[in-house]
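Write out this protein's structure.
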Amino acid sequence: MSSVIRQPLFPVRRSLKVTPTEENLRAVRAAFTRSDAEGKGYLTRADVKVAFVGLLGYRPSSHELDVLLEGEETLSSTAFEALALERLAWTDPIDEWRQMFKALDVRGVGYLTIAELRRAFSIVAPRLAGASAEEVFAEADTDGDGRVGFREFERLLRWNLSC
């Protein structure tokens, strides 16, 4: 009879030292403060769920919470900070970009049109000149087919981050 080693469905606390950015540290502390509305100085299981939704964009399952809380019912601010910073270090920017692209691709066809980009600009930055959407679109549409696919969108984001 052989024993089977089961891997967790999600990463469990690694011993890897995470060097937080100031931006991540501010975001984690703000998420803790928002979730600890009563000012208790700790988060309950329900508070941790709310904090994760606001910070990481997903609601952890009961099993994941059991693992994260290690049998405790609450999480101190320092423990939450360490845990959340570690989770933030695991986020993949390309996955985030893909989610942004999907949100802009309201028809779900796999590419963006100038109309979709104008709509996004009108919601996100209504005071920008209409020409801004056209400039961004022209820059992103490298093959000139009147559509921006994910690869073109990704290239535009990478280029803007490197400037």
